[in-house]
Amino acid sequence: MLIYDLDLPALTTQLKEWDEPAYRAKQIWQGLYQHLYDSPEQFTNLSKPLREKMAKHFIFSNFKVKTFQDSSDGHTRKTLFELPDKNLIEAVLMKYEREDGEIGANRDSDFATGASRPKVRRTLCISTQAGCAMGCVFCATGQMGFKRNLSSGEIVAQVMYYARMLKAKNESVTNVVYMGMGEPFHNYENTMASVDTLNDADGFNFGARRFTISTVGLVPQIRRFADEQRQVNLAVSLHASDDESRLEMMPINKKYKIAELLEACDYYVQKTSRRVTFEWALINGVNDSPEVAKKLGAKLRGLMCHVNAIPLNPTTGFNGKATDRQRAIQFKETLEQAGIPCTIRVRRGIDIKAGCGQLAGAAKG
After folding, report:
1. What pTM did the predictor assign?
2. C-alpha to C-alpha distances, 196 to 8, 59, 186, 232, nearest whole angstrom
3. Measured between alpha carbons, how far is 198 from 254 in angstroms, rounded to an integer?
4. pLDDT tens across 24-60, in order?
5. Is 136 a known active-site residue?
6. Are residue 37 and residue 105 in the same domain, yes or no?
7. How far apart are CA 343 and CA 178, in angstroms?
8. Of the residues 125, 265, 305, 356, which is catalytic?
9. Are the C-beta atoms of 150 and 5 separated by less than 8 Å?
10. Out of 90, 154, 183, 279, which one is annotated catalytic?
11. Which of the residues 16, 29, 107, 339 has an alpha carbon 20 to 30 A from that of 88?
């Protein structure tokens, strides 16, 4: 059993079955998430027999690092993990110094929440599935198809891997974005369980507002997420302002039209009093014109939201090209004239295929 798949109550139950006092569970929990231990031998505050039981019954890592790549600028690291069933997943560490990473105003505020954020950020982009069933045409993960859901522990383990790496450099994780391989809301239970584990005040104690979950727009799950009134940030991949255009890029639009999606987003805002971020991959000649921006601005008017635009990252399975800087800025300015805040994100890790939409679980970048 992967130890990260256990929440604290389940861990407590297991310790009781071993006739151990309940407080031992909290000691193990704190060892895992505060001290970042990754082997039973490190739990020196526990008895040797208990450590031996842990070694026998718990797995502390069920993936192995197959390879990793660093971007040429040193700001991005992509790690390829191999799971026991030979499925491959990727996770990314992105380093931001001071105010780099975006073009536009409000550089000191979080793009999803408007909250103050640290000047130096260490952001993790983690995966929730091996592959993806959503089939977005411009996404390498979507192009590879769906393999399987990750367990909550497999999601958490990605964060712990990088947290230990950063701790060795006297650094720490500042943000976790569920924007890696897979559709988080297609694996809703395990995704939210991982958030709860990482958010637990007696463990990793990672603030809810430092998580962002990205979805292609699964309407029932957005409404469920709203009803739970979490403080976790919500980002929705939109990419088009009309149903015909969106359907060509995102098959999910056949099931949930833009109007229904925006109604769910408005419901989220009303329930949580938090704004929603719309992700927009700027594709040259497709969705980057002032006309498209005006149409989008009209659709989003009155909704507490923010558009997070990024020039398209290249993938081998899609022929579209990234917009140029001038068109991106014009798109941004047109949206802002319509009263919709917009940020243009600077692409990261493109040379190692670590950018948004580029993760494909491949042995070579």
Report:
1. 0.92
2. 10, 20, 17, 11
3. 35
4. 999 999 999 999 999 999 999 999 999 999 999 999 9
5. no
6. no
7. 19
8. 356
9. no
10. 90
11. 29
